[in-house]
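Teaching assistant here, posting this on the class forum so everyone can see the example we discussed in section. The complex has two components, and the goal was to see what a joint structure prediction looks like when all of them are supplied at once.
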Amino acid sequence: MDTGAYRNQPFDELSAAMHKVAHKDNLDTIYERFAKQQPQCAFGAIGVCCTLCTDGPCQITRKAKRGVCGASSDLMVARNLLLKCSQGTAANVYHARNVARTLKAIGEGKSDYEIKDEQKLRQIASLFGIDGNAPINKIAKDFGEFFINQINSNDYEPLKLVEIVAPKRRLEVWKRLDIIPGGPNSEVATALSKAMTNVNNDVVDLLLHCLRLGIANEYAGLFGITTLQEMIIGTAKPNKGEVNIGILDKDAVNIVMHGHQPLLAIKVLEIARDKKWQKKAKETGAKNGIKIYGSLCEGQQIFNIASEYKDVFFGQIGNWIQQELIIATGAVDALVFDYNCVMPTISEEFAPRYHTKLISTDKTIRQAGVERLEFEPDKAVWIAEQILEKAIISFGKRSEVNIPAVKYSAIAGFTTESVVSALGGSVDPLVEAIKSNSVKGICAVVGCTTVREFQSGRHIVNLARELIKRDILVIGAGCCSSAMQNANLMSLEAVKESGKRLASVCSAIGVPPCLSYGSCTDIGKIINTAVSVADALGVDIPSLPVVASAPEYMEQKAVADAFTAVAFGLTLHLAPAPPVLGSPLVTKILTEDVEALTGGKVFVELQPEKTAGIIEEVINKKRQSLGLKI
Amino acid sequence: MKRLVVDLQRCSGCKRCELACALEHSSSKEYLDVFKSKDGLKPRIFVESIGDRPVPVVCRHCADPLCVSACMAGCMQKDIQSGVVNNQGYEQKCVGCWMCIMACPFGVILTSSIDSKASDCTFPQAIKCDFCPNKATPACVEACPNEVLTVEES
């Protein structure tokens, strides 16, 4: 495949149609911006550009083997990588802190929420010495407080979350490497100090710190986000819904919930049910009332629990790359977003052109022309009402509407529990299927979408197609899930695209060959499933026929997640190449040497077909060493 | 005869040559002044993306330059000794007819702004690579960190 041939061309037909509309209206989208940035500087792309101090910017060139401060290419690359990893960890932990704060507020009776999954809260809290039989509000308060304290604890005290929740075999490995993290915020602060000019020039130590952050990212970030959110809004359940831009309804007040934190969205769904609001919308001319949609990871998280909101939630509208195209329909009356993955062009160019009312709900966001209604646990209902009111007003300001007619559907809402219940109550049938080679292995295809290389989901979708053909079960999360949903790979129809053996397993239990676990913050659940399978087989994670892939990784949270995967001993495929190629040493450590330490490693491959081949090889090798047939 | 030779494999696309060229041909030669000025940076070397590779596009100072043939004012000339093709320093003045821009197959000639201090003209003129007459080595060659650009004399 020639990467250049896809420049400026969205992958799916609906995005392509909207891209034409934006083009006609003289608006640059991410595709045009990418083209205008070419050529991009290779020093940055391979990690040997340093802009930390005023003696720079320095680059490692044919003339200069060291930066002004004396840093070698190895040090520059490792330092830059640690900085990205820190930023990603900080962001995931920030999200977890917000959820923990809401949990605590519920316990104190200072919120608009209740505990939905009491059983889960009692069970998890009791792991940490909180009385699981106490009144539920007391547990919520104590556990919320405990979690916040864990996030803010010192880096010289090992994180209890890790010591108690992590699998024993992993703990031994991490202890040996001395990478059991302390409090994530203080680990991030230490990492930032280490990466300063003229502090640390031990490349191995800097990379080990990345692994520490990876572990903190899992337990104080991803695990916390998923688990605590499930306590508050309920646990994922498989359900069928519609996807992609075509789901917008020209006769409804359309509200898109965009971002990463779903707590407010759930309140908006609940309030939108109220006849009063639906009536108000109809009186303004929207004969189908108010419809709420999810976008990006926030949408995936709503989709996970959407079975109880089918009357107001109308599907997953798309992934990161599609956001401008979604607005270009002219049919989005309000875009409500929290932190992460909102392009500045939405507020500066697209929303003003297509009438969309913008509302930001997280304190990290400040954007010109965007109304701020910052989330507080006890203001959720009020904010939700404001959102509905403003969306209805915005409906009246619509001009031309262009909604592509095609609709696709997908099944979402998988998690360790729902997979286990689909299997009849235990993980054993999956383990048996792996043993008998009906399922050759599992590949987690996770993370962002990017406009580099194949652009906007081509790598993700082509890789997933190749994998299921080879009887490898695919688990998706984040924008990868959305790309697969748009390509119809997360519906039962995709079963016929998979290999015979995988197809028979999927039709027997009625699941698609590509399972959506939800958002990029739900990656923790994938690790949780891997741990369950490893426990059932009585082995450690690196022995499992399980591989992870981030085929279109883009931003810093993905860097932190990558180190989580490596720390857990997974073989990880990355594309595009991370900015490390300027240091042969760092490249060798990540792609070879680290395997002897954690059992995990990274490989880079830009061609989807070749990627699938390598993943199959890795899986076969792991099957062989487990004594399973191939 | 002088020519710029480009080693394509070595180019990183950092565009330091563009920056050095624009500064050398500015009146103040100070990055911030030029960046803030109405004209902005006006390089005469262009790093383009061709087939996903960065490619510095430079004036070839052709043996039989089409821009010289196209110049009705007789201002664009090829210096017999150095081989450098340029429209500055000759008796005839550029009148801004842009025929050289039309004729150049490499697209390396562009227009100055009216208030350009490069000349005493009150209208825009054609500007292009002049091989940095005030320097022993052209600014782009000096600036390149990867030795992509070299001067060949034959």
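For the discussion questions: Chain B has a mean pLDDT of 89. Residues 2-58+129-153 of chain B form a domain with the Alpha-Beta Plaits fold (CATH 3.30.70.20). Think about how each of these relates to the inputs above.
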